[in-house]
Design brief:
The complex is a heterodimer. Chain A has a domain of 124 residues. Chain A is flat and about 55 Å long. The longest helix of chain A is centred in the middle third of the chain and has 45 residues. In chain A, helix 1 crosses helix 4, helix 3 crosses helix 4 and helix 7 packs antiparallel against helix 8. Chain A is an all-alpha fold. Chain A has 9 helices and no strands. The radius of gyration of chain B is 19 Å and the shape is globular. By secondary structure, chain B is mostly helical. Chain B has 2 domains: 133 residues, no CATH class; 44 residues, no CATH class. Helices cover 79% and strands 0% of the residues of chain B. Classes of the chains: A mainly alpha, B mainly alpha. At the A-B interface, helix 1, helix 2, helix 3, helix 4 and helix 5 of A face helix 1, helix 2, helix 3, helix 4 and helix 5 of B.
């Protein structure tokens, strides 16, 4: 029988593996995370995992980092969080740093340059389809549709007229609008805010986890 | 000082990028163009590399942009910057504020942020597309139609739809990137 690895080392290696083998960003990683920590290691149960996923999706930053920090902390405290986050970033950092040393030379090859002119079109397509997917999956109500249209139109117009306006402001302004709407709703009484705000805090934990489970299933199916 | 700039720019991006990898692209593009880190073309080239290599896109982009501006230390600081807010916020939630996201005020804030992020991703694609296919970067640009680009886009859309409805499988981004690289060599190199 093999002696089980110390938990910290095992945590580190799991996230190193996940960081090294997930292509295509955060969502591809979710199925792997669940398999590793819920099914194989049984460090988390499914509900706990879905709860973490919900939090990871609603907090800023790369979802992989959010999940690594969260799972690491749950398993082994602050040191665990630190090691898991380091491990999930290390492969990407190493690989990209090495590529960055040669990338300019590589691009200056004539045919590679042609290939990348094609690839740029693909990037437009990938970002566009990611955008369509996010817009489709968004909860739709009067407020969210208004914010989406206003930001969409403003961003394109300001770009075309070369007006500098940091993208960060769009996000902050929209967030403050959402917050304001919530407070107006609260002052006016419940009825207005319930209709206007998209995602009121879940009433019961059961309903919430069911919903997330459905979401996670869809994501797994999509990959 | 470039190191401090890199760290702060990416710290800012890390703190406001809701919605995962693609949610961060509009902010990264903005930072690259406004600080002159990369041109639009370089930025797009690198998204393709970030998509084709393992790891979170945000980390890949931060490492690359940091490295291009300030070598190893630049790459390290940019990556640290983009990770730090996520790390601290999650630690805060995990350790102290389990219910942070259940506060109605936070939900209200997020109800505004989510549609804004969605719109920014889509609008960024439109702006990039206008530039790379129609040559329109600003209103003063003359129309410069890149029909080869449009052919590539049409093939990509066709292949994705075909894969979705005939094979019942989403076309992998890496397959699409390789396909467009081949088409690029063929169309721009041979004709």
């Amino acid at each position: 029988m093999k002696k089980p690895l110390p938990k910290l080392l095992s945590l580190f290696l799991s996230f190193l593996k996940i960081g090294a083998f997930t292509f295509g960003g955060g969502y591809a990683m979710i199925a792997l995370l669940e398999n590793e920590f819920v099914s194989r290691k049984k460090w988390l149960d499914k509900d706990e995992f879905l709860d973490m996923l919900g939090i990871g999706e609603s907090t800023p930053g790369p979802i992989a980092v959010n999940m690594a920090t969260f799972i690491g902390y749950r398993v082994a405290g602050v040191l665990g969080a630190l090691l898991a986050t380091l491990a999930v970033c290390l492969p990407a950092f190493t690989i990209i740093f090495i590529i960055s040393l040669f990338f300019d030379k590589f691009l200056s090859l004539t045919y590679v340059g042609y290939a990348f002119r094609g690839v740029q079109i693909c990037v437009v397509y990938l970002i566009g389809s990611a955008g369509v997917k996010v817009v489709k999956g968004m909860e739709k109500n009067l407020f969210s549709v208004l914010v989406t249209s206003a930001v969409f139109i403003a961003f394109i117009l300001l770009s075309l007229f070369s007006v500098t306006f940091s993208t960060i402001f769009y996000i902050l302004i929209a967030g403050v609008l959402g917050l304001t709407l919530y407070f107006i709703g609260r002052i006016r009484g419940k009825d207005a805010s319930e209709k206007a705000l998209s995602a009121p805090a879940p009433q019961s934990d059961e309903g919430e986890s069911e919903e997330k489970e459905k979401e996670a299933d869809e994501k797994e199916g999509g990959e | 000082m470039i190191y401090l700039t890199l760290f702060l720019v990416f710290l800012e991006i890390g703190a406001v990028s809701f919605g995962g990898g693609y949610g961060m692209i509009p902010m990264m593009r903005d930072a690259c163009l406004s600080h002159g880190f990369l041109t639009e073309e370089q930025f797009m080239d690198f998204i393709a590399v970030a998509e084709s290599t393992p790891g979170p896109i945000a980390i890949n982009m931060a490492t690359f942009i940091g490295s291009s501006q300030g070598g190893f230390l630049g790459a390290f600081l940019a990556t640290l910057g983009v990770i730090l807010p996520a790390f601290l916020i999650i630690l805060l939630i995990a350790a102290i504020l389990r219910n942070l996201l259940k506060y109605k005020g936070v939900q209200g804030f997020l109800s505004g942020v989510r549609p804004a992020v969605a719109a920014l991703i889509l609008a960024t694609a439109v702006v990039m597309g206008l530039r790379s296919i129609f040559g329109i970067g600003s209103v003063s640009d003359s129309f410069d139609f890149n029909y080869k680009g449009l052919i590539i886009l049409a093939v990509l859309v066709g292949v994705s739809l075909g894969s979705k409805y005939l094979l019942k499988k989403k076309a992998s981004p890496i397959v699409l990137i390789l396909l467009s690289a081949g088409l690029g060599m063929l169309l721009y190199g041979a004709f």
